[in-house]
Amino acid sequence: MIKVQFAATPERWETYAEPMRAGFANAGLEVDLRVDHAPDAVDYVIYAPNGPLKDFSPYTSCKAVLSLWAGVEKVVGNTSLTMPLCRMVDPGLTAGMVEWVAGHVLRYHLDIDRSIATQDQWQPRVPPLAMERPVTVLGLGALGRACAETLAQLGFPVTGWSRSPKVIDGITCQHGDDGLTRALAGAEIVVLLLPDTPATENMLNAETLARLPRGARIINPGRGPLIDDDALLAALDSGQIAHATLDVFRIEPLPAEHRYWAHPNVTVTPHIAAETRVVTSAQVIAENIRRGEAGEPFLHLVDRELGY
Questions:
Q1: Which residue spans of the chain are classified as CATH 3.40.50.720?
Q2: Strands, E assignment, the chain
Q3: Which of 5, 27, 194, 274 could form a disulfide with 97 if both were Cys (CB 3.0 to 4.6 A apart)?
């Protein structure tokens, strides 16, 4: 019997317990899933960073920690976590992110906000075609790539940027510092889907925002620290950036006094762009445990040096 510890909030346990058990059964795994195993007997830990588990050192027999979250920045530096760490790459989460990003890109492209604001006026304004609206996606991991490919299928000319070189059909891929300059130049809409690491903090700052064409729009469903908030507010005030749609923030919930709430050119959404979906994430967890038991490589293994 494989012993699996569920280390997340009590609310998550109520939501995930039965779908996890069903996922294990469908994968042909005999699993004893609990919240109260003796730590030294545990084979795998299903983990969420906002749960109670902070010290992994008692889990001496643990073969892997399997996160329910896509982001691992809150745990990757934990020195007691010496076993393999796998992040969540959930097809349900990916689908949700693609839909959210595509919706807000199309909202900007079609100028839907203007149509809503002028409901009492007859002021025809025909938007350009998608092929005339350059979009840049910063970050070409699983989520960034899926969003970039969907936007390209809708007809947008899409440029993608990543730290290391990548080749994706239909996407103009850039990398490195020079590549970032090229990716920002001409981008009318920028989507941020980078991980939160020391190398990506304040990726959009006064300097990089100035490289964008005047009137560009920003969409951030990635991580709050990717943006220098003061620099973005200054760019919004000056008109360098026409509008920003922000789903993630350095402090969540976003404090009531934060300028983003009242700024006329900011849309705030409360970290809803993508959520781990119970049934599909249970299937991902079950597959990784199956792999661990079969001696196969884990999926979505975190590179501790890169931080994702």
A1: 2-90+276-294, 91-268
A2: 2-7, 31-34, 44-47, 64-67, 85-86, 135-138, 158-162, 172-175, 189-192, 216-220, 241-246, 266-268
A3: 274
The size of the chain, in residues, is 308
SS3 171: coil
Out of 104, 107, 223, 243, the active site residue is 223
pLDDT digits over 2-57, tens only? 999 999 999 999 999 999 999 999 999 999 999 999 999 999 999 999 999 999 99
How much is the pTM?
Answer: 0.90
- Catalytic residue flag (residue 277): no
Cβ neighbours of residue 50 closer than 8 Å, sequence gap 6 or more: 8, 9
- Contact of 67 with 48, CB cutoff 8 Å: yes
Fold of 2-90+276-294: Rossmann fold (3.40.50)
Q: Which of 271, 290, 291, 304 is catalytic?
A: 271
Class of domain 91-268: alpha beta
CA 95, 97, 103, 106 dihedral sign is negative
The secondary element (H helix, E strand) that includes residue 293 is helix 278-294
Nearest CA to 140 out of 129, 132, 152, 131 is that of 152
CA 26 to centroid of chain Cα atoms: 28
52: cis peptide before it, omega within 30°?
no
Would residue 175 show up in a list of annotated catalytic residues for this protein? Answer: no
